[in-house]
Specification:
Elements lengths: L5 E2 L4 E9 H16 L14 H31 L4 E9 L9 E10 L4 E2 L6 E6 L4 H14 L2 E4 L19 E10 L2 E14 L7 H7 L7 E7 L13 E15 L5 H6 L7 H35 E2 L4 H21 L12 H24 L5 H12 L5 H9 L2 H21 L3 E6 L2 H4 L7
Parallel strand pairs: 6-13
Antiparallel strand pairs: 1-2, 2-4, 3-4, 5-12, 7-11, 8-9, 8-11, 10-11
Helix pairs in contact: 1-2, 3-6, 6-11, 7-8, 9-10, 9-11
């Protein structure tokens, strides 16, 4: 038995549900009899435990289960009869001073419904489509990075099959091995002393004053110099202070980069050692990476545009649920990084804005997909998985990885669905191409 649905706020509703106590008692007795068939107790054979003992042991639990079932069914009926689109789960509470009919018990079900959603004219939405070119210059830079990843060192000044590396004086690009000791007001400090410490000059792994003092030294030479630690230096004991360092160059190696030849190409997986094929492979990989990043930036612009043209209220319960998901995702991410975040408190407000945006976009996308038939097709999902597989040595293994797990495939379907929405909006909105430099897109500049 139910009462009329009350509107408490824009999305908040309440309904009173009443349950017959006779029906509850009948169902409890029925379930206890079933439970008695397998019940065990000291001094009794299985299934021969007296009903009073079974009721004493399981009665409260079974009664709670029955009440939950009865109330749940009653709520489902009222939701269906009133065509309510319930968001999340209702909050069920016993109704105080309910005035319910004798022989019944009443509950209040407080819940939220999905909002009415209005999406404005997409023709007036402004969207930036990111465009980035992959030129020969990017391929050349990538090859240089790959060469540096395969660098090997030789003692500077000693002749070998690759030469001597020039005069045995430290310069940028050399690997210097040093002994050093630092003092502040004549006293050594923690972390200020090392022997046989190696670093590559010019890579910025040491403070600028330290590198500058090392440049130009020969093996065996020493130098004394002042070094001012930045105020924001990670070592709090020395941050903002000036130390005096003594440095001695113990060993000096020069960097030999491999030639861009057939052997180099083969080391990158090009079986015949073709330089042209190597460059084609690098171009294909860069193009794939650029395409993915450019699409992501375009998608962000599309989502921002949708948030501006759509009008809707957001169910608080869905935001709360998403906050819980974000907290759990954060815990898992920290655990993967080796940090123990199991009992670490995460204030909900840290995730509130992100959760509300995610929920709002989820509702908008669901509406667009349903209204415009933008669901992911099997062919689209297959094509997306095959595209993923192209960047792996064994594409068949990648295909098997996705198609053998429904959850993984569902993640791909979600990506395709989002892409369908993006393409739909791009076909309706005012689109401006935004040319982004390769390095900026890849995050290699201060602008990125």
């Amino acid at each position: 038995m139910v009462t009329a649905v009350e509107t408490l706020a824009k999305l908040e509703r309440r309904v009173t549900l009443t349950v017959s106590l006779d029906e509850v008692r009948t169902e409890v007795e029925k379930r206890l009899k079933v439970r008695a068939r397998s019940a065990k107790a000291p001094g009794f054979r299985q299934g021969k435990v007296p009903m009073k003992m079974v009721a004493a042991q399981y009665g409260y639990q079974v009664e709670s289960e029955v009440l939950n079932d009865k109330v749940g069914r009653a709520f489902s009926v009222v939701a269906e009869e009133n065509q309510l689109r319930v968001a999340g789960y209702p909050r069920i509470e016993p109704k105080a001073n309910s005035g319910a009919a004798e022989g019944t018990i009443a509950f209040d079900a407080n819940f939220e419904v999905y909002p009415e959603l209005v999406i404005g004219d997409l023709a007036g939405a402004d969207v930036e489509k990111t465009v980035t070119a992959v030129s020969d210059a990017e391929i050349d830079k990538t090859i240089e990075i790959l060469r540096k990843q395969r660098v090997h060192y030789h003692t500077k000044g000693e002749k070998g099959e690759h030469g001597d590396g020039g005069a045995p004086i430290s310069a940028n690009g050399d690997r210097a091995t040093v002994d050093f000791v630092g003092t502040i007001d004549g006293v050594e400090f923690a972390g200020g002393k090392a022997e046989g410490y190696a670093f590559v000059l010019g890579e910025g792994s040491m403070l600028p004053e330290f590198e500058a003092a090392t440049l130009g030294l020969k093996v065996g030479e020493s130098k004394v110099f002042p070094l001012s630690f930045p105020a924001e230096y990670h070592g709090k004991d020395v941050a903002g202070k000036t130390a005096e360092f003594t440095i001695t160059l113990k060993k000096l190696d020069w960097a030999h980069l491999p030639e861009v030849d057939a052997d180099f190409a083969q080391s990158l997986g090009v079986e015949d050692g073709s330089i042209e094929k190597m460059r084609e492979d690098i171009r294909a990989n860069l193009t794939r990476e650029v395409s993915g990043r450019a699409k992501a930036k375009t998608k962000d612009s599309v989502m921002d545009a949708l948030l501006k043209v759509a009008t809707l209220d957001v169910p608080k319960v869905l935001v709360e649920q998403d906050i819980e998901r974000l907290v759990e995702m954060t815990r898992q991410d920290m655990a993967q990084r080796g940090m123990n975040a199991k009992d670490m408190p995460f204030p909900p407000e840290l995730f509130a804005a992100q959760a509300e945006r995610r929920v709002r976009l989820g509702l908008i996308l669901a509406d667009l997909v349903k209204a415009n038939n933008l669901q992911a097709t099997a062919d689209q999902v297959k094509a997306q998985v095959e595209e993923f597989a192209q960047s792996y040595e064994d594409p068949q293994q990648v295909l098997k990885y996705y198609f053998s797990d429904r959850q993984r495939l569902g993640e791909v379907e979600a990506l395709v669905l989002e892409e369908n929405v993006v393409n739909y909006v791009l076909g309706k909105a005012k689109v401006t191409e935004k040319v982004v430099a390769f390095e900026e897109l890849m995050g290699n500049t201060a602008q990125a």
